[in-house]
Every structure is written in C-alpha cells, then in structure tokens.
Write the structure tokens for this entry.
Amino acid sequence: MIKIGEYNTLSIIREAQQGLYIADEEGNEVLLPNRYVPEDFKIWDKLTVFVYLDNEERPVATTDKPYITKDNFAVLRCNQVTDFGAFLDWGLVKELFCPFKEQVVKMRVGQWYLVRCYLDEASNRLVASSKTNRFLDNSNLNIEKFEEVDLIVSHPSEIGMNVIVNEAHSGLIFKDDLFKELSIGDRLKGIVKNVRSDNKLDIMLGQIGYRNIEPNAELIMGVLETHDGFVPLTDKSSPDEIKKWLEMSKKNFKKAVGNLYKQQLIEIKPDGLYLKV
C-alpha cells in the first residue's frame, strides 16, 4: 500500500510521456513527474520517494524532501492566506493547507508557526494544524522520572515554557529551570523532573546531576566512587553477583545502568562498569 504523507520505496514499472510510473509490491501505482526522474534508471529499479496529493487531488511522488511528514511537527512559514485558510511552505511545489478551524490564531503571511501535519480522513488530504495540543495525550504515559526525552518547544505560559515530549505528550519547563533562551520549534534534549499524580510532566533541560537521579543509579555511582571507578558487573552478570555488590535485582541494575549510560556518567566495557572522568 502506498502511504500518503510518508516516504515509500517503490519500483519503476514503466516510462510514460509525463514521467515514470512506480509501484509497490501490491501493484499500486503512482506517477513520478519528469522533473524528478533520475538521469540513469532501469525498469525495476527502486526509488525512495515522498507521496502526497497534487493540485487535482491525485497521488503524486517526488524526490524532494518536505520539511514535515505526516504525524510530525515542524515550524513552517505562511506563504499566503485565502478565504479558506492559510498555505504553508513545506518545501514542495504544492503548499500545505491549514484551514482556519485548525489555527490557534489567524495566520499571517511571512510569519512562522509550529504545526502538526496529519491526514484529514474526510478529504484524504494532508493538512496542517497549529492546534498542536489536540495531538498530545498524557493519559497513558510510558515515561518515568529522570528519563531523558526529546523535546520540541511549543509555546510560552505565565509559569514557564510548554514543550512537546517525545512528539506524543505535553510537558512544562518552569521558569526557574529555564537557563537559556528558547524559540518555538527548537528541538532539544531534556530530563523528566517529575511525573505528577495527574500525569502532567515537569521537564528540565540538560542533565540532572547523579545526586538527584533515581536511587539505584545513585547507589551504583557511589559504589564506583568507592572502588576506584570500576565495578566488575555487566548485563551478563548473575543476579547473585549483582546482589552481592549492590543489593538490587538484575532488572533494576540494568535499568539504572541504562540511565547512567544515557547521561554519559559511565562507560560499559566487557569486563564491567567504569566511571567516566
């Protein structure tokens, strides 16, 4: 099945006056217009293309790389506003449409907006929405305190900066934890400072010092410091060995080691764990 709004790897099946017809393994075809046809090609060569709808709402392929793909976020420039909505520059010949009902504030030409690209089921068209919060859900979190996460800066509030966490959840960086200037759309790493009882996420930038990380990771760091920066334990160590050294289960050991490794506080070698200097 050819997926609209995504990259597809398709095979060249025939040449036509208007370009190449390329198809998936099920025989679904799409046109790659002449302007995107490679200089050298053979029938059955595979091409990776982005597929979207042209001005006549027909699927078409391109080798251009859009600034945003389906179900993702990006900051895009508004190129024009009509009676129906705004049109955004997303790097392709046909601009990305953002209807008025999907705009937090009325878009203006020349301004930049954080949007989500999605497939409108009613029209089967790719559209944009600046109402990004409606695509975020904190009801079922698979995130824990002190975990490193990917952030997209969303919008400011009176108490800090709202962020999109792992492109799926909403979070907040309080003003007291803001030590650098942020712009809407910035992508950066952060740490989950707290998961509240209502599943709201408190985020802070950078890395939290190991004295403030989860207790098992702190315990491992303490043992490393008292044993010249080395502990002869790996993920292949037996539960008894781990318990002897650290008084914790193997499951908790592996999780804590992963936490420390992500924060670049330790090195993992075949003979054990080393404290990073």
